[in-house]
Amino acid sequence: MACTGEGPAALAGLRAGDQVLTAGGTSVSTSTDLVTAIRGLRGPQVFEIVRDGKPQSLMVNVTETQRWDEKAGKLVPVGAVGASLSTYVPQKHYNPVTAIPATGNLIGTVAVETVKAIGKIPMKVGALWDSITGSERAMDTPMSIVGASRMGGETVEHDMWIMFWILLAQLNFALGAINLLPLLPFDGGHIAVATYEKVRNMIRSARGLAVGAPVNYMKLMPATYLVLVVVVGYMLLTITADIVNPIRLFQ
Predict the structure, then answer these.
(1) Digit-coded pLDDT (tens) for 110-163
(2) Which residue ranges form the domains of the chain, and what is each CATH number?
(3) Are 16 and 1 within 8 A, CB to CB?
(4) Taking the complete model, does pTM exceed 0.85, yes or no?
């Protein structure tokens, strides 16, 4: 578990990495079990946990809040303790020497995952449309600058500045990768045209021919307009999804 702010969980002494065994007398083995148990509780409740291999008991004051119920189609009262469920990864510290290869590994990982994510963009159209028409928004669906701004605001609101800077870096990385796609009007498209001209002229020079004429961009305009239509359409789709059914980190 990871506590967010001065909520009931943090006030009771729950820490990141604690494994909850029971909540209010109900045994839990999965995150779904724990959420279901907590939502049905109110007031002071005993939580049996394991911390650093040792069992402990904590008294947690479960408070009532509102959560959206998809089946009911409205907000319903549920119990909450102000904690998020996640796989706990201990924070690792680096010195100036070990930070260099670690940074390279991180950049490589981000680059690979970004390319994979871009390749999956066309397959996410259906999921985005479903989220607009009432289905639950999947966490792995693309988002627009509207959604990214909302997510950044949530991290700042919860004083998670490291996550904020990571999100900002990933956003810039993704925008840079998309801009390098070999399609006009992206920069990658201009690079592709320039590369084509260079290779063509090298081949012509090797054959004793004069360099060819520059590529006629007017002939490429239909393809450019098609790319623009697709990009603008996808942008409008993601913006609509981010307004109607945004991704929320803390809910």
Answers:
(1) 889 888 888 888 999 998 998 898 888 888 889 999 999 998 988 888 788 888
(2) 8-80 (2.30.42.10), 96-244 (no CATH)
(3) yes
(4) no
